[in-house]
Amino acid sequence: MVNRLANKVAAITGAAGGIGLETTILFVRENASVLMLDISEPALEKALSKVYELCPEAKTSKQFIKTMKCDVSKEADIKNCIESLDLAGGIDIMFNNAGIMHSEDDDAISTSEKIWDLTQAINVKGVWFGCKHAVLSMRRHKKTKGSIINTASMVALVGAATPQLAYTASKGAVLALTRELAMVHARENIRFNSLCPGPLNTPMLQDWLGDDVQKRYRREVHFPMGRFGEAIEQANAVVFLASDESSFVNAADFVVDGGMTKAYVTAE
Ligand code: NAD
């Protein structure tokens, strides 16, 4: 399918990484204009080349693809990036997707305050800033169909005895703030939904697991479908949530996890 996002302007944070980059590619294929935001400029450059390689037609179409360096934990960065879209008529879709899972994040005893604060600053405050400036842009431009999607995680819904307490708490906060904003802005027709991915085959998790067989086994035994998810499987869900096809989907914890949060005993 194409054109599901025609004439829409989107911003994606964490756009140089797994889910963000796959979502950028699908948004471009569906004819949206996309502002790719990430903290890493070299990664953004590489990501943009990949988008053009896979979507060469975007070079000559009227849609635009732009990149901007943005640290989502800094409000001035987000504000500046979103306001740069005023020239393009403002934003229709905001995908607040950037997040970190720090290797020193652990249980209540071992996690340092520094790691806790860093995780909340990016994963929670960054989502708040993204929501705030997207709403302001949608209001400035009198948008009547806004869609804001915030990446949470399956770990916001189920407990794990392999703790990453700061990360889990941050994703629970994303679910709660998204639900509340969905109620606040529903009559303006700005929809808010959370994406809750299961464990994925992206560098964020795979680099962390490395070749530690025991660490992997502790997780893989719980996968109903017997595999990690792929970033594109999340991106497909995001396209739906971003498009007018999901016009009555609001305040959802949109779970894309291969059934993991519904599992008791998985097949052998
Ligand atoms: P990734 O590490 O591949 O991509 C994350 C991107 O965010 C990177 O490009 C990174 O540079 C960027 N980023 C980090 N800090 C930033 C900041 N301060 N400002 C702007 N950009 C910043 O990870 P991914 O797997 O694509 O994860 C994307 C989202 O999905 C994250 O919010 C993550 O928590 C969530 N998630 C991932 C998994 C998984 O298994 N990978 C599972 C559930 C949820």
Low-confidence stretches: none
User: How helix-rich are the residues, as a percent range?
Assistant: 40-55%
Order of helices and strands: EHEHEHEHEHEHHHE
First-residue to last-residue Cα separation: 36 Å
Shape by Cα distribution: globular
So how many helices? 8
Q: How many E-type strands? A: 7
Largest sheet: 7 strands, parallel
Q: What structural category characterises the helix and strand content?
A: alpha/beta
Radius of gyration: 18 Å
Topology:
Layout: E1 9-13, H1 18-29, E2 33-38, H2 41-54, E3 65-69, H3 75-83, E4 93-96, H4 113-140, E5 146-151, H5 165-185, E6 190-197, H6 203-209, H7 213-220, H8 231-242, E7 253-256
Helix pairs in contact: 1-8, 3-4, 4-5
Bound molecules: nicotinamide-adenine-dinucleotide.
Tell me about this structure.
The protein has 268 residues and is an alpha/beta fold. The chain contains 8 helices and 7 strands. The chain has a 7-stranded parallel beta sheet with strand order 3-2-1-4-5-6-7, sandwiched between helices. α3 packs parallel to α4 (113-140). The mean pLDDT is 96. Bound molecules: nicotinamide-adenine-dinucleotide. Nicotinamide-adenine-dinucleotide binds at residues 13-14, 16-20, 38-40, 43, 70-73, 97-101, 122, 151, 153, 197, 199-200, 202-205, 231.
